[in-house]
Design brief:
The chain has 279 residues and is of the alpha/beta class. It is built from ten helices and nine strands. The protein is 37% helix and 19% strand.
Length: 279
């Protein structure tokens, strides 16, 4: 007896997948766009051919093992850009758009074409979003992972966005350069955090940062002044409960106008400050 697309959907949902996941996996198996959900509903009586069924079974097994849907698709949308992603990089999260929006506000108040650095760029999401929205800015990005930089460079080339990439750990990657704006979404999860169990498919080095999750943020704040132009800004994404601590670190380091920005859930998601014009 032939299996229809409707039969496949019902089986996936009986097996515990939610409706959206089931639809996305079925579309992937059929090699159709994730935007073809209406097509799927209109063709639910079509037969699921054997090659698509085999691919669907493989995709379901990967999803049940916790692999992110973005890795199964091979891409993820971020700030209107379609980015290629795989296990070499973190999947860009919508929360990080808060950081991008703040950075864009800072660029708009700069009054001249600005130089920007994205520290720990991963897939290139932040740097590429800024380059796409503010083409007059000079955008650079760094990462300690050579594999992540391969992904980021490929995304930049495919999107035709001029970002300069540098290899190295945090600001060691750009020892002789200064910037008007430095942004970063560094690792900020504590080493023993129980939430890590759900993130085993993503690169651990891009997630964890010491016993309290603040090791990399401390390093960035301590070293950013030597890489900032006078009056330049440092903006950092952090954990949902780290804003007060990050603000204190910024103030102790000498940053002024220190504040935080909230995401769509009203959580303080990013903190930043301005390096003084004169010391």
């Amino acid at each position: 007896m032939n299996t229809t697309l409707r039969d496949a959907m019902l089986r996936l949902q009986r097996d515990g997948l939610d409706r959206l996941d089931a639809q996305m996996l079925l579309l992937l198996a059929l090699q159709r766009s994730a935007h073809d959900r209406a097509w799927l509903l209109a063709h639910d009586g079509d037969v699921l051919e054997a090659p698509a069924k085999l691919l669907l079974d493989e995709l379901v097994q990967r999803r049940e093992r916790g692999e992110p849907m973005a890795y199964l698709r091979g891409d993820q949308e971020f700030f209107g850009l379609q980015l290629q992603v795989d296990p070499r990089v973190l999947v860009p999260r919508p929360d990080t758009e808060t950081l991008v929006n703040w950075a864009l506000d800072m660029l708009d108040t700069n009054g001249k074409p600005a130089s920007v650095l994205d520290l720990g760029t991963g897939s290139g999401a932040i740097a590429l979003a800024l380059a796409s929205q503010r083409p007059m800015a000079s955008v650079s990005a760094s990462d300690a992972s050579a594999e992540a930089l391969v992904v980021a460079r490929a995304n930049a080339q495919r999107l035709g966005l001029p970002v300069q990439f540098h290899a190295g750990s945090w600001l060691d990657a750009v020892p002789d350069l200064r910037f008007d704006l430095i942004v970063s979404n560094p690792p900020y999860i504590a080493d023993g955090d129980p939430h890590l169990a759900a993130l085993t498919h993503e690169p651990l080095s891009a997630l964890t940062a010491g016993a309290d999750g603040l090791k990399d943020i401390r390093a960035i704040i301590a070293n950013a002044p030597k890489a900032l132009e006078p009056g330049g800004w440092l903006l950092i994404e952090h954990g949902f409960d780290q804003a007060a601590t990050v603000r204190a670190l910024l103030q102790t380091a000498g940053f002024k106008q220190v504040s935080s920005r909230t995401d769509l859930a009203a959580i303080e998601r990013c903190s930043g400050g301005q390096w003084p014009q004169q010391r």
